[in-house]
Design a protein that fits this description.
With 351 residues, the chain is α+β, with helices and mostly antiparallel strands. The chain has twelve helices and seven strands. The strands form two sheets. The protein has a five-stranded mixed β-sheet, with helices on both faces. The chain has a two-stranded antiparallel sheet with strand order 4-5. Strand 2 and strand 3 form a beta hairpin. The longest helix is centred in the middle third of the chain and has 49 residues.
Length: 351
């Protein structure tokens, strides 16, 4: 299966030099090595052509979090590697429809030829009983042979086109699989941030039109940097995977669990009030607190995992950004209040 290729913009020399200098300065200020992936993120951040990328980086920094090559790789996967699969799917669908129409036409032609062959065959059977019509029988036999050859030729064409149509259908399925993979976070298998945006927009629109409740949880692993610093990124990745599994297993099929970025997650709960969302959050919080990690090489039991959570619910006129922002503010209060706790948006109003 082919990989998605990143999409870049070609700048004029003066602009390119300006963005180049700013990118190197950005990486130096944050202590990030100027490898190709980190450089690409820094360059596009200065160019400002991807508003969601800039918003994500600025939001990350505003919350007092450090940037490193690990996070920039995630940004790269989200904003550069998800561009072409949708167009590929459209082209494959068009080709599929075209081949199907051609196949229908050939099928009709084959059917007509087959009917003609049956008529000739029936006439030949009648002629077989008349010995005085030997010459006509020979002619009819020759015509029948020629007709059978034509039918055989058309059948061969039909078989070939059916094979092509089958291959195209399989290719279309592969493209759909590729699109699904492009919507998933490679480390956890949860929806990535791009897919979350699409799902959440759809759920907000449905909730508003049906006057149905919708709630959202922002989840952040407490002191995650300590896992990376003390035990390495492989252990850090395992912590992220285990938390993501707890979130996925602790919600319904209609709910959406996504990796928001780094050690942050989002859970969208359609048809769920804020009070109900707080109950769900409590169950998830307890499940995560019971996780036990043991280092295989040394059998060392690692420190327990805790999370902080913020909860918000859909208000009239809400957008994706406003709903996430209130949950994020609640999460901020949870962390400022000592971490390892859950705060709803209503609690932030009295602070």
């Amino acid at each position: 299966m082919s990989e998605l290729m990143p999409c870049f913009h070609i700048d004029l020399p003066d602009k390119a030099q300006q963005h180049h200098a700013a990118a190197l300065d950005f990486l130096e200020r944050h202590g990030i090595p100027p490898n190709p992936i980190c450089y690409a993120i820094a360059y596009e951040y200065d160019a400002g052509r991807k508003p969601e990328l800039n918003l994500e980086i600025e939001s990350h920094l505003d919350r007092g979090r450090a940037l490193d090559a690990h996070y920039l790789r995630e940004f790269f996967d989200t904003h550069f590697m998800r561009q072409s699969d949708e167009k590929v799917g459209e082209h494959i669908a068009d080709l599929h429809n075209l081949l199907y129409k051609v196949l229908e036409g050939v099928s009709g032609a084959c059917s007509g030829a087959a009917d003609f062959g049956k008529v000739l065959e029936a006439q030949t059977e009648e002629l077989k009983g008349d010995v005085d019509m030997a010459g006509l029988k020979a002619i009819a036999g020759n015509l029948l042979t020629a007709t059978k050859k034509a039918i055989s030729s058309n059948q061969s064409m039909r078989d070939q086109l059916e094979s092509v149509e089958k291959d195209t259908s399989e290719l279309k399925d592969q493209v759909k699989q590729l699109q699904d993979q492009a919507s998933r976070d490679s480390l956890t298998g949860l929806y990535n941030r791009t897919a979350l945006s699409q799902q959440l927009d759809s759920m907000i629109e449905r909730g508003a039109s049906e006057n149905a409740p919708l709630s959202l949880l922002m989840v952040d692993i407490d002191h995650f940097k300590r896992f990376n610093d003390n035990f390495g990124h492989l252990i850090g990745d395992e912590v992220i995977r285990r938390v993501s599994m707890s979130l996925q297993q602790g919600v319904r099929e209609v709910d959406v669990a996504a990796r928001f970025g780094g050690e942050e997650f989002t859970v969208v709960l359609p048809g769920t009030s804020l009070d109900e969302a707080m109950e769900v959050a409590q169950k998830l919080h307890e499940a995560i607190s019971k996780l036990v990690l043991v280092r295989r090489s040394t059998k060392e039991k690692l420190p327990g995992i805790t999370v902080s959570m913020g909860a918000s619910c859909l208000h009239p006129g809400d957008s994706r950004e406003s709903l996430i922002e209130r949950a994020d503010q609640a999460l901020y209060h949870a962390k400022e209040s000592g971490r390892n706790r859950i705060v709803s948006e209503t609690e932030t109003l009295v602070h």
